[in-house]
Amino acid sequence: MIEKFDKTAQLPNGQMFEFWEVPLIYEREIHVDNKNPLASDENEGTLLKPFRTINAAAQIATPGTRVIIHGGIYRETVQPAMGGSSPEKMISYEACQGEEVIIKASVEVKNFKPSVGWRLTRGFGDNISSTEGIKVWEIELDPEDFKGYNPFCAVNILHDRLFIEYNKTDMTTYLNRRGMVFVDGKPMKQVPLYYMLSEIENSYWVEANGQKVHIRLAGDDDPRSHLIELSNREQCFAPKVPFLSYIRVKGLTLAHAATGAPVPQRGSLSCYRGHHWIIEDCTIDWSNATGIDCGNECWHHSLIEEQTIGNTIIRRNTIKDVGVCGIAGMFVKNMLIEDNLITGTGWQRMELSWEAGGIKVHNSVNSLIRRNIIKESYGCDALWMDVGNENNRITSNLFLDGIDSREHLFIECTRDAENLIDNNIIWNVEGRYDKNAVKSEPGSSGWYKTTETDVRNGYGIYLEGTDRLRIVNNLIGKCNKAGFFAKVVAFRLMINRGGTSRENKFFNNLFYQCGEAAIILPNEHNKAEGNAYTKMPAGYLRVMHPEPEMCLDLSTWQEFCGFDKTGCNCDMEIEINSGDLTMEIIYKSELSLINADEKVSTDYFGAAVDGLRTAGPFTGLTDGKIRFSIDPRRKGE
Length: 637
What we know:
single chain, 34% strand
């Protein structure tokens, strides 16, 4: 169980995070085993006579029931009919210890035949001989497999299209079909036009009516030599009715969900607006759009006062290769998101619909996000906290390798209560939009208006109309543009006022090799103290307004702005190995000791720190060369 007085769980207001877990009491066990020859959904779910499907057990499970799922592949959507009644009497769906349980929202297909009647050339006059040897196959979908939901008929865009920047993005990925095709467990690439199959191996194309799929295998191979699966369900685990609560999902793999682009936020694993879920030790594998949803689903649902959305624990999961958003939560409270690995998010490249990220929350209150690894985010943020976030702590996370991404952390339109970002490693944001510079315009949409100059973004932390953020003891490095950037959003009149980007605090951070600047402030109404800087370019500390912009070094930053009186320049080399999650530091000079921040009494690994410490997330490191693991996750019991 979790230590309730762990100092890493102390929120910005000084109170401890509200843990609610207690030892579970099971009054009943139900077994599911689709490999057992006696399995039937007409059984009572005993070990000797188990259910064949998980969903059969989900229809009769009552508070205090433990559903034990034995190893196998289950091609179904689990739709619990009931939730638990209290922290003591939850309903648990869990893999039998030591057995692999995979729930797939896909069907295995066979009986392909050669594709005929379509041109593989772009135009009528093209050289037909250039397509010789290319083999394309087709299959007509069985209506029984796609009864009630055919993702090959539905495009990625869902009902709320208000925020998509149609004039600034290639709409191809939004208009692609939600259905995915897998060959021996690996995805094929969808192409929008038939002739493109001749240009791209391992690809597929869907006919207009969504009833036939055409594929071209790598090496123009024969599909009879491979396992081919087509996604045929939207979700893997999701209640049919909202607000079911006190449900635990443990140790399951959920794969191939054909979810559509958020919003609404409908995940492969969905809490469907419930509260007090525990989602632990699971794997989300290849969801078309969203991995886990744990909030209000969308902003069009009424917020029912008596329904608390949140209080959910998401821990020790692996969320990989999700198209748009790994974990999505809207209007959530008291969330605990810890010890997860989220990797490969954003391959759909739908960031201009504004819901893309390893984690994306709106209006998060009193939540704790700690010890997660979010790496290899494609064109999207690692963590995006959008609008009205209060008293959240983001601590001891590893944000690594933003591939063609604008920033790792985006805190938007958050104004009236302090949030704390401390002891994180924020490393390697490539940036994007070569040869384009951002015009300074009000609101989020202005961020993407461009001019023809050679400028590229790429920020460790980016704020838009956000006040009172506390940024403490982080390592922020290898950011293509800047470690930190903020802008005022005067006319986004949320909660009766615009965003001012004031009273943000930067204490005891270590900035390393940021492309143009360590910190770019919109104004002087912020605070900076005890930060350390190494391998920085000229003018790496900046204040943009009032104009003209000031580009300063540390001594003039101290003299003209009164910032970083105890800050320092330092000399060190830092390398991070993304593969084995190790860091090597070579100290060429000793870091100065500074006063620990009053609200942060731990380091990156959760060790207690009192009194003096060095800038950055690590303590106890000495001069010289040192190599160590930076995996912050804690293993389960």
